[in-house]
Amino acid sequence: MYRPLVVLVLPGLSGTLTRSPATTRGFGEEATVSEATAEQEAKDAAVRHLKERDGELVVVRGWIAGSRSSGKIAFLQVRDGSGVVQAVVSRRDVPEEAWNDAVRATQESTVEVVGRVRADERAPGGVELHVTGLRLIHLSPEFPITPKEHGTAFLMQHRHLWLRSSRQRAALRVRSEVEQAIRDFYYERGYTLIDSPILTPAACEGTATLFSTDYFGEQAFLSQSGQLYLEPAAAALGKVYCFGPTFRAEKSKTRRHLMEFWMVEPEVAFLEFDGLCDLAEEFVSYLVARVLDRSAEDLKTLERDTSKLASVVPPFPRITYDDAVKILAQEKGEFAWGGDIGADEETLIASRYDRPVMVTHYPAAMKAFYMQPDPANPKVALALDMLAPEGYGEIIGGSQRIHDHDLLLQRIQEHGLPVEAFQWYLDVRKYGTFPHSGFGMGVERFVAWMCGLQHVRETIPYPRMLYRIYP
Question: Which domains does the chain have, with CATH numbers?
Answer without folding.
Answer: 6-138 (2.40.50.140), 153-459 (3.30.930.10)
